[in-house]
Amino acid sequence: MKNRFLMIFLLFVGYVVVYLDKTVMGFALLPIEREFDLRPEQLGYITGIFFLAYSLFQIPAGWLNDKFGYKKVLSMSLCLLGGFALCFGMLGFGLGLLVTFRFLSGVGHSGYPCSCAKAVVSNFPLEKRTFAQSILLSSAGLAMTAGPLVAVYSLNSLGWRGSFSILGLLAFAIAIAIMLWVPNPAPVKARAGAVTGYRTLLKNPIVVLLFISIFCINIPSYGLMAWLPKYLVQQRGMTLDVSGLVVAAGGLGIWISSLATGWLVGRYMQGKEPKVIFCSALLSALCIWLVYTSTSALTAGLLLFLGYVFLMAAFVTVFTLPMKRLPPEVMGAAMGIINTGGTLGGFVAPIAMGYLITVSQGYLSTFVFLALAMVVAGLAMLPLALKTRHALTEEKCDGI
After folding, report:
1. Burial track 333-347 (b if 16+ CB lie within 10 A, e otherwise)
2. Percent helix, strand, coil in the chain (nearest 5)?
């Protein structure tokens, strides 16, 4: 139990650094825009290219987990992230270099989520996996609660270059701690008759529908992360400090929702996960749209808090459902496929929003885009929500 606690703690801290990198990026766009005189769509490339790399390398990272174990991939991911965060801060002297280093940072990020999922499945019994994974995912809430405040202070004190350099050093430190103290994975033997190929996984309805749903969920998740600070400052006239507090309110919603969802769903909603995703996604869509219509920082912060509560409830449930329905020997590959959908959403969102802002000269179309994405995420779960738990279990056994 002590080793499990230490492992979860270290993976949690690593996740915080991973999410801080994305959070700080949203605020760093403002000084980067001023320094290089970039257009909105060019800023979208800097954030979007990161998620393109993140998406392209999800499946290879999942394969590496199944082949070499989660500990090696965790350490490698954090070392790559740290190295290219340092390069972004110290050597990013033009748009081409900024885009290149963010692409390579995305390569580093790609191995972390599926490695954490593999570590949870390998070290926790079935009934405890949802809560263990929700603790790790709650790191997004901590990063988005404290992250905006840290980002504003760091950008004011160190500038965007110094901020990314410090993040790089933190990633190296966590990688060393994981190499020293996270236990090595035990070898996993495939079940007799188990089929572990990617083609089989891609035919499984659970994997396909979760891929679609998490793709749509991550559009507002990362779209807001990339563009909300800029929207609040330039369109709502808030100061950078006030916009940081509004974003932090959303991060608090993520943190609370991550932990609460993991406990509630794991304890009371077994077999009803698709219905949880469907309802949470629709409620999140409503709140995201209302953020756009709000006229005060207090109202925007409250609605963002609620929007992220429901968004994260959907996200955590999507992310933990495979841990209950799929066998351990394919977990790295399955999570790589599903999380590819999420990272593709992160790639599409900032670039699409940049073009929408440029074409419409405003943010109305972007918030419509984000709200509709959440509606589609919920609708994608209807085929699973209309089936009983017994039917889902039979499909799992037949498809894998």
Report:
1. bbbbbbbbbbbbbbb
2. 85, 0, 15
